[in-house]
Amino acid sequence: MYLQRKIIKEICKLLNDIDFLKDEDVEKYIEKPPREDYGDFACSISFSLAKKLKKSPVEIAKEIVKSLRKNKYIEKVEEKNGYVNFFLNYETVAKELLKEVIGKGKNYGKSNIGKSKKVMVEFSQPNPVHPMHIGHARTTLLGDALSNILAFNGYKVIRANYMNDVGLQVAKLVTAYNLWAKGENPEGKPDHWLWKYYVKFHEEVKQHPELESQAREFLRKFEVLKDEKVSKLWRKIVDWCISGFEKTYKEIGVRFDVYFYESDFREKGKELVMKALKKGIAFKSEQGTIVADLEKVGLPNFVLLRSDGTGLYQTSDLGLTVHKFEKYKLSKSIWVVSSEQSLYFKQIFKTLELLGYKWVKDCYHLSFEHVVLQEGKMSSREGRAIMLDEVVERLVSLALEEVEKRNPQLPKDKKMKIAKAIGVGALRYGILKIEPNNMITFDWKQMLSFEGNTGPYLQYAYTRCKGILKKLGKVKFSFENKEFTREEKKLIKTILEMPDVIETVGRNYKVHEICNYVYNLACVFNEFYHKCPVIKDEKLKNFRATLVEATRICIGNCLSMLNIEVPEVM
């Protein structure tokens, strides 16, 4: 049990030892006070007992304070406006906490809530018709960070990417290539090269609507007729595009354990559609489509199969979801997909539930809003989008300018390595710090700032910790201190909170809460750094160096979960 949880349990024991509180669930009344002078923990149970005991909350709180026995973690207890406020004994807490942090190092903050549980996180899912744009960064980086956080919480995590390799959009690209590329091989990065043909198709179809029919015929030949020549061309184009994606993933440090392809699950999905039809869960419409009958359960009806026998994304998704749970024996499956698909996931989960799959309760859609440009929404079809490769290249280039200004003496390869860590880190943090339900307006300048709530600011806090420790040389860590400044107390208390934050995110999947925590920790550390000399104070040097090392470990562990690299210098 980590220390903050242990202290809360101790406070609850103290409270339950009082006669009129012995049967109360006191833990739900423990909270963090809004002001530092109100203590480190507060209990608000007096307000809920006022009517029952026929006393004011202030009277009850005063009685609780008088009745509390001593505890090694608590220095004093006070009543304030009906609250019972607990003040930590920082001498005891610091000693136990710092030993734990230094002892555990990279493992500090880990929990075992996911022990013996297997979770699959499906994320990124780009369409193999054009390069990933900045909008894809949100699902990709959110899914990647969530996978790390779940692994840190003890889960066996399977990172999955699902390729929509059989849709009508792919058919349009195949048609475009067949008409205008004339068998050419890609020049440069293949996904970028193919994109120009995808854009060309959408320009030409405005004047030549018959191109739409040609694309539909290509889809029918690939999926229904299994035409060998079409299949060969189709696979070649999809593989080219995916090879381009893999280069992008490598640049931003993202990996997958498994790739799924929509075409591999089409037939399995069609079997499930027929099963739904047979069970009366679905019906055949007048137009010949097969539709999941969901209106009776409060959702719009859901087309599962086209009238010409070709499937839809949801056809394969039914097959894939069953495959996931049957093959991998999952405890949980998480889809990191934009909020535009919220209804879709309700429909797909409900269809599977009606088909009798009990594991549907373990399916979770982690939704998020879009990334938009300052000038408005992007469109890949019209060629109006900022591509992820371009973003990374530009952020690294801008970071390199800053590194050259700050560290002109460094060799070129070192400068480049640091610039890449800063540029990619800025992108990652700029995306991940925003609560998923909020839209992101992409801002180059703000993202790369070395000040405020940004990736470079956190990387700088980490390198500052390393710099202090390097200047000190060989440090003998000390866990003992008798008197604490306000800044030391605040830093200790913030370090104390870290495991609780990580475990909470392991349950609620709100990655931005790790960002909130580590930014707050960096701010608290900077206050400490400016007010509490480490190197110059001989008496407190070893203890404060221990605080610096503990901070470095906490910032490092959080950035590791967010997959943000920490450069040697900045």
Quick overview:
With 570 residues, the protein is α/β, with parallel strands linked by helices. 54% of the residues lie in helices and 10% in strands.
What are the defining features of this structure?
570 residues; alpha/beta; Gyrase A, domain 2; Rossmann fold; Isoleucyl-tRNA Synthetase, Domain 1; 3 domains; five-stranded parallel sheet; four-stranded antiparallel sheet; 19 helices
Q: Can you walk through the features of this model?
A:
It is a single chain. Strand 8 and strand 9 (290-292) form a beta hairpin. The protein folds into three domains: 3-88, Arginyl tRNA synthetase N-terminal domain (Gyrase A, domain 2, 2-Layer Sandwich), CATH 3.30.1360.70; 123-372, 3-Layer(aba) Sandwich (Rossmann fold), CATH 3.40.50.620; 388-561, Orthogonal Bundle (Isoleucyl-tRNA Synthetase, Domain 1), CATH 1.10.730. 54% of the residues lie in helices and 10% in strands. The chain is flat, with a radius of gyration of 29 Å. The chain is built from 19 helices and 14 strands. The two termini are 37 Å apart. The model has no long low-confidence stretch (mean pLDDT 94). The chain has 570 residues and is α/β, with parallel strands linked by helices. The longest helix has 25 residues, at 228-252. The protein has a five-stranded parallel sheet with strand order 7-6-5-11-12, with helices on both faces.
